[in-house]
Design goal:
Chain lengths: 349, 349
């Protein structure tokens, strides 16, 4: 029996090798998505990396975009669970369901270009929203995102100002093995370096944006260990911002907190004078203008510069402008949309 | 009683032939087919080749190897809690070899596998020498490696991933055999990753079924003392099984890197739970002494089919988790019921 098995295996392997060597690769056919669709045929999927409060405004913004631009459908799917493999799975499932334009916040900026490439190969239009791929290339049609390094720099500058230009600063942020976090760390470091040694970056605490409890525990530990030495805390992630605002208030320490985003507790903190400032991003603009651009691309427009990176804006809010900040943001969204019409998109009509 | 019964010496009864319904693998196949039929009825897009079947096969390939990695030590009644981080270290080794030495694909893969095997052997050596529980040793190793992976990427890359992949690795992600033709005859729509996983399945299957080493590992898992007294070098087998586990974790890391398009620090983050789920669902005992390689593959396929199906049905994040949990509980309960029925009828299952 055994010799036959061996003989069979050898013949089998040889057959595979011969068949393989005779094979040639098929030429890549151009994606059929190049054919223009009508707005009613466009189905936009907005896919964040996972469930997170930052992305909640995307739901309404997507819905508003659907009404305003009269396209086929919009869905918001946050089931990726911060796992790139799962997100890829969610995206292909949505594509199988007929969604043909994707606004994506990639879980892993370092490998999200592969995901974009896969989708574009199938003929879909893709916008990278709220985060751009790591490195120099963006294989999505465009990236509409906060310039995170710039936003972190603005936040750190606000912190330096709030602490009177000297003292000890602590930076609280998210997932360390994420290239956006690395950019935020660089932004804060730049602002600290500019003080010429007057401000010292006492600590950079990472990996605490997973959920609010993790952030609260980290803030409590920080305040217990070094509370008296810290003059200001700059946060560049959502949960640490909420936790720092609450923690400092509870501990009654004279620490200036620079938050990020506009959770109700943060805005209340600014109004009450407990939070020195917050740096707002523009999630509504990202989803609304992102959907608009995707519809236009599906209708046959092309990007003047494929893969262009566009700053969706960041705004420093203090007690001075806490009542009116949303006007600035709405104005930025309007100007972004007209920038797409005039600068970024090339349309035949 | 017939007279010959008393006169002839009692012959050992031949083992009862396993009826089809009592074979656990058949149960899993039936469940798999039922699930595919159910999801196809609910969402015909489930059979979409490019958007559903090809990505699902790629995921099954990755997670089947993840399951085998855990199975290699479950054979001893041990656990490998560091399976994800061993994959991350292997991906790092592959990435470093390509980045610094411009190593081709096969050398990068070999380097990654060697790194995984080495880490596995180290865990095995500590367990065999000290007698400390494998759970504790591999958990400690996992913690150490989390830090090490982060530090290594920070020292050797710009952030958290290597830029660039060896030539041919992108084809592993994007191509299927349908892209390669001999004349007009093209291959089936199976991703190029699948045969690599298939080789791993065959090798592990043959190892535990036919090789002396594999059988000795199972005997050591069944009863270490008895195995030792029978002259089996139990310590060596413990080290070898853990080295195999590390090697397979390394292979899974490589496959995931190919699938996601980057050697990054996040590789392996989501491996731990699936690594247990697939073998246990497939009939591998947690206490050691019995493994089912085919069952592990089927267990992986079932998990991925459930995940893909629920994704296509567009369940929201909490519902998705709830239903995955419920379906898996139902699958495990059915298997238990089958086991109990088989025992009552005196059939080994």
């Amino acid at each position: 029996m055994r010799p036959f098995v061996r003989l069979g295996s050898i013949v089998g392997v040889l057959a595979v090798v011969i068949a393989a060597s005779a094979c040639t690769k098929k030429e890549d056919t151009p994606a059929d998505g190049a054919t223009a669709l009508t707005a009613a045929q466009v189905k936009v999927a907005l896919v964040p990396g996972g469930a997170h409060p930052y992305f909640q405004p995307w739901k309404d913004a997507g819905g508003k975009a659907k009404t305003d631009f009269a396209f086929g459908d919009v869905t918001f799917n946050e089931t990726a669970g911060w796992d790139q493999t799962k997100q890829n799975d969610v995206l292909t499932s949505l594509a199988a369901q007929g969604y043909n334009a994707f606004g994506i916040f990639g879980v892993a900026p370092e490998s999200i270009n592969s995901t974009f490439e896969n989708l574009k190969k199938q003929g879909f239009h893709v916008g990278s929203l709220a985060s751009c791929p790591a490195g120099d290339k963006n294989l999505a049609d465009f990236c509409l995102s906060t310039d995170v390094q710039e936003a972190a720099y603005k936040a750190a500058k606000a912190a330096v100002e709030a602490m009177g230009g000297a003292g000890n600063l602590v930076h609280l942020t998210g997932n360390k093995v994420d290239s956006n976090t690395q950019r935020r760390i660089a932004g804060v470091q730049k602002a600290v370096d500019e003080t010429g040694g007057k401000v010292k970056l006492l600590d950079t605490i990472t990996d605490i944006d997973k959920d609010l409890q993790t952030a609260q525990k980290a803030v409590a530990d920080l305040l217990a260990a070094k509370g008296s030495q810290v003059n200001a805390i700059v946060t560049t992630a959502y949960n640490p911002a909420v936790a720092a605002a609450g923690g400092v208030k509870q501990a009654k320490l004279p620490i200036k907190v620079i938050a990020i985003d506009d959770d109700p507790t943060i805005i209340a903190g600014i109004k009450a004078g407990e939070v020195a400032a917050t740096v707002l991003q523009n999630p509504v603009g990202q989803a609304y203008v992102g959907s608009y651009a995707l519809v236009k691309l599906s209708e046959g427009c092309t990007m003047a510069t494929p893969g262009v990176i566009i700053d969706s804006g960041s705004f420093v809010v203090t007690t001075a402008n806490v009542a009116t900040y949303d006007n600035d943001r709405a104005a930025k969204t309007t100007s972004l949309k007209s920038d797409f019409d005039t600068k970024y998109l090339t349309c035949a009509k | 009683m017939k007279p010959e019964d008393t006169t002839t010496p009692e012959q050992p009864r031949p083992p009862a032939r396993l009826p089809l319904w009592a074979n656990p693998r058949i149960g899993l196949v039936v469940l798999l087919i039922a699930l595919i039929a159910l999801f196809t009825t609910l969402r015909p897009a489930f059979l979409n080749t490019q958007l559903t079947l090809v990505p699902m096969q790629a995921d099954i390939s990755v997670y089947a190897v993840v399951g085998l990695s855990q199975l290699a030590v479950l054979s001893l009644g041990h656990m490998n809690m560091a399976v994800g981080r061993m994959a991350a270290m292997s991906a790092f080794a592959s990435g470093l070899l390509h980045d610094r030495l411009d190593a081709p694909l096969i050398v990068a893969l070999a380097g990654g596998l060697a790194m995984g095997a080495l880490l596995g052997a180290l865990a095995g050596l500590i367990i065999a020498r000290t007698g400390v529980n494998s759970f504790v040793v591999t958990l400690a190793l996992d913690f150490a490696l989390i830090g090490l992976v982060s530090l290594l990427y920070a020292s050797f890359t710009d952030g958290v991933a290597f830029n660039g992949l060896p030539a041919g690795m992108s084809a592993l992600r994007t191509d299927t055999f349908a892209d390669y033709c001999a004349g007009d005859l093209c291959g089936p729509p199976i991703p190029l990753l699948a045969p690599i996983a298939l080789v791993a399945v065959l090798v592990v299957g043959l190892l535990f079924r036919w090789s002396r080493t594999g059988r000795e590992v199972l005997m050591a898992g069944s009863n270490a003392k008895a195995a030792e007294l029978s002259g089996i070098p139990v310590r060596a087998r413990v080290i070898q099984a853990h080295a195999l586990s590390g090697l397979l974790a390394g292979l899974a890391g490589f496959l995931l890197s190919a699938n996601n398009g980057a050697f990054s620090a996040g590789v392996g983050d989501g491996f731990l739970l699936p690594s247990f789920l697939a073998p246990v669902l497939g009939g591998t005992l947690l206490v050691g002494g019995a493994v089912s390689v085919l069952g592990t593959v089927l267990g992986t396929a079932i998990t991925q089919v459930i995940y893909k199906g629920l994704n296509l049905l567009q369940f929201q994040v909490d519902e998705l988790k709830l239903y995955i949990g419920l379906v898996l509980l139902a699958a495990l309960s059915l298997d238990r019921l089958r086991h109990v029925l088989a025992e009552r009828r005196g059939v080994p299952a």
